[in-house]
Amino acid sequence: MERQKEIELLSQCLELARDGRPFMTEDEVFVPVAHYVDEARFEQERALFFRSMNIVAHGSQIPSPGDFITRDVVGTPTILVRDKDGSAKAFVNVCRHRGATVELRDQGRCKRFVCPYHAWTYETDGSLAAVRQKEGFSSLDIDNTSLVELTCVEAAGLLWVCPDPRVREWNPDDATRAVVAELEGLLGADSTVFASHARLWAANWKLIVDGGLESYHFKIAHRNTIAGFFTDNTSTYEFLGDHIRSVLPRTSILTLADRPVSDWDIRSHTHLLYALAPNASLLIQERHFELILTTPISIDQCRIEIMSVAPKPGPEGYSGKAKSFLAANHAFTKKTLEEDFEIAEQIQRGLHTGANEHFRFARFEGALTEWHRRLDEKLGCPVDEALR
Ligand code: FES
Ligand SMILES: [Fe+2]
């Protein structure tokens, strides 16, 4: 992050924390509950994920040539593999003979992928290497029959994949390029996934996003976890193209008033939250970060994976102290986020009751308003009057 930007963000948070006032927009806004329960709209949202670059893993999960993981990326079964040349590649995990799943394991290391049905064999670059009794396939052009490749990019240490094979290349806009450059500076090159946890939640994916874009709830919903670490309802946000950078000031921000600006360090006094469209959030803490991946499954269900990513240890591994800190921090972050996800499930259970026709977003919940407005625009839906 540019030093000037860091100082600007810290000054803004310090001022709000000192005055005890939230970051406000002009007016409160009403978002229709119908947006969370309309099946046709959900399909449009899912199609948006399908044609986008989704962050699906951290590069350190496939460190060496032959290392692979398999994932469902918005409905596309996918193999992510480190190829011999060191690049990360993604393939549809479907055999080109009769469609069996080529790699059944969640993760592993292999020289080649061997289909468990009739043993067609593929190289880690996707090319078809061997076909048993190939004389039976009179018209098969082995050299031109590969696993179907998906667009895959490794940027800021993260693996981004588009699950739609028709999308042949990544064309990031200027804002995305700038966010990636900012993240490269913040995340560092040598990090590794320390712990991860994934499960399904019975909530519309947008309820999960809503819960991550305001800090009005910290003092109440997180009273048993993080509330005491942050100043009350003073987070700020800025849209960077489709993405958002939100700054969550910690109580220690108030000490900056007595310190020279040259000492100010954003990671010591805030948590930085990046919401990366369409599916990921990065919660950057002082020495490590959490990567939170959300996949919409159905209108009332999503899958969420929480990963703790920390600087790589030396050859002896993490010290006992570092290990305990990271394990405790991962457990604490998971507990905090699950407080949010449980509330999202509660909201989901009430969506059909008709108790609310609209949700009411306060002047200090402006990030949600703007995020919903932009989503409407992206879907080509008429932007609701209230969101204009
Ligand atoms: S389906 Fe894979 S080898 Fe036949
Ligand atoms: Fe929360």
CATH homologous superfamily descriptor of the largest domain: Naphthalene 1,2-dioxygenase Alpha Subunit, Chain A, domain 1
Choose one word for the global shape. globular
So, CATH architecture of the largest domain? Alpha-Beta Complex
The main β sheet shows up as: 7 strands, antiparallel
CATH topology of the largest domain: Naphthalene 1,2-dioxygenase Alpha Subunit, Chain A, domain 1
Query: Ligands in the structure?
Result: FE2/S2 (inorganic) cluster, fe (ii) ion
How is the topology of this model organized?
Elements: H1 3-19, E1 29-32, H2 34-37, H3 39-50, E2 54-58, E3 67-73, E4 76-82, E5 88-92, E6 107-109, E7 112-114, E8 121-123, E9 128-130, E10 149-150, E11 152-155, E12 158-161, H4 174-187, E13 191-201, H5 205-212, H6 218-221, E14 236-240, E15 243-249, H7 266-269, E16 270-276, E17 280-284, E18 289-298, E19 301-311, H8 320-350, E20 358-361, H9 366-379
Antiparallel strand pairs: 1-20, 2-12, 3-4, 3-6, 4-5, 5-10, 7-8, 8-9, 11-12, 13-19, 14-15, 15-16, 16-17, 17-18, 18-19
The chain binds FE2/S2 (inorganic) cluster and fe (ii) ion.
